[in-house]
User: What shape does this take?
Amino acid sequence: MKSVIPFASALHEGCRQAMARLELPHLERLLARLSPSSMVCGDENSLSMPHERAIARAHGIEAPDGCIPLAALDAGRGNEHEAFGWITPCHWHVAMDHISMSHSSQLQLTVQDAQAVFEAVSPYFEQDGIVVEMQSPQRWLARGEVFRDLPTASLDRVDGGNIDRWIPRIKAASALRRLQQETQMLLYTHQVNDRRQSAGLLPINSFWISGTGALPVSAQGTAPAAMEVSGKLRDPALAQDWAAWSAAWRELDSTHLASLGSALDKGESISLTLCGERSSRTWTSPSGRSYWRGLGARMAGVFSGKRVPQVLEAL
Assistant: This one.
């Protein structure tokens, strides 16, 4: 069992305060019983998120920052040589000195509205040699050479925040920037947005590109062990709702992490990867008598209740 928990911590001061009060007994027990790896360090300015790098490693993928081919992984077998990206319809708010993206949960984007937007803009993509498929209202899978070796910022870096420094401005992205501008003009007067605004909803006026790239040869045909990536902490962390984030952590602790502990009791092999905004760390099922001889002392230290906040704050 492989488990990845994104947004296990965040850099916001409100999160630090919430972590100091957070009690996660099942996580404490797991950290005492599992063997830690070294920290995989990064920083909050990287295009790719720590949990995305963890997913890539599980698939045998080493990629430059912003070029982890998550959309290509999503496309599945039979598309190993193609380049893909994810297209996310969104609302941009243009202020005097910056551009921000409304959080995806605020859009309340229905299948009907997404389909109307998709049908309006997909011919523009096709003219640039990009084939687009709507997988869900807020995730479209796009295939085209423009996405090969194109670094893009994770949606998790921008959802609900300032996007200025994350917009790709390299020459290879110029066609996509032009495509964004064309679709923005199209959607400005589109009837779907007239209808949405009449209903008090945000208009869809742009899109975000992420998960770009093609699968490297080393990852083609690779089928890693089953991995569960939890999304429970993402939305409250991005919304900076630390009460909801703490509640989501407690739910994870009492359900998913309790299940991992039960699996460990049965002798199953497990790994747990905690990811913050900068770094990640993995704990795995231990082996060797020397490890088990020191277990009691380590568990006594963990149950002081001080280790979990320290672990999370370091991510």
